[in-house]
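Long-time lurker, first post. I've been practising inverse folding by hand and with some scripts of my own, and I keep getting stuck on stretches where the structure tokens seem ambiguous. Below is the full token string for one chain I'm working on. Before anyone asks, I'm not after the true native sequence, just a reasonable design that respects the backbone. If someone could post their per-position residues I'd love to compare against what I wrote down in my notebook.
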């Protein structure tokens, strides 16, 4: 079964959690027709073949990027650039804007996604009062989602097909939890840590070119190309 099909099966079947504390809710973009169809087209185009990918894992999806497109760190404008038609609003999402620049610097989506899988440590959208929420924003939420995050990593490696020589964590705070999982499970030989795209766009936008170049340099190391 191709990487794209294994990934689709995994994400479409990933379970919703039981009711969460602190009035936080979770939803799966892959249970909605629009994001599911866009993700399916994207995966068949760019996650073709059986080649194991190096994982780039963020925190959990946001409602305006992955929540609408089904593709991690990708908004409607990025989908358009990658040749995928849609009816989403032409609204820029900062993390997607940064990742699009990285993908283009790598040589475009066909080259990039043959090497890398881009996802999240927890693959479902979390909301509180209608706004994005991070799995680590409260200890109670972290504890509630811990088994599902562990399962996410284990299944991505064992069932979807990630390379175990290295993985890349997006976000310094995210890395503390990713490292704990890796210490427990021993899934990846090396973890590389990069500042989260949203942080870079919010606080270091004037250094966009340098930050994109740094991403490409680290990703080449993680993929064993440098």
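-- Answer (accepted) --
I ran through it position by position. Result:
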């Amino acid at each position: 079964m191709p990487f794209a099909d294994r990934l689709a099966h995994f994400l479409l079947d990933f379970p919703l959690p039981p009711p969460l504390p602190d009035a936080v809710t979770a939803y799966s973009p892959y249970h909605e027709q629009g994001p599911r169809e866009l993700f399916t087209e994207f995966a068949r185009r760019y996650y073709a073949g059986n080649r194991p990918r190096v994982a780039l894992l963020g925190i959990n999806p946001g409602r305006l990027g992955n929540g609408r497109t089904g593709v991690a760190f990708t908004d409607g404008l990025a989908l358009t650039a990658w040749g995928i038609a849609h009816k989403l609003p032409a609204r820029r999402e900062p993390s997607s804007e940064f990742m699009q620049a990285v993908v283009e610097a790598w040589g475009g989506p066909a080259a990039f996604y043959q090497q890398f899988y881009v996802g999240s440590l927890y693959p479902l959208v979390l909301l509180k009062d209608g706004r994005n929420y991070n799995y680590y924003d409260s200890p109670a939420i972290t504890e509630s989602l811990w088994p599902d995050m562990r399962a996410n990593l284990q299944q991505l490696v064992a069932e979807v097909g990630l390379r175990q020589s290295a993985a890349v964590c997006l976000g310094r705070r995210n890395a503390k939890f990713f490292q704990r999982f890796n210490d427990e499970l021993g899934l990846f030989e090396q973890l590389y840590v990069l500042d989260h795209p949203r942080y870079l766009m919010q606080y270091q936008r004037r250094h966009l070119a340098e930050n994109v170049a740094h991403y490409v340099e680290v990703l080449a190391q993680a993929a064993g190309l440098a």
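A couple of notes from the structure itself: Strands lie at 24-27, 53-58, 116-120, 125-128, 131-132, 162-170, 191-194. The chain has one domain: 3-223. Happy to go over any region you disagree with.
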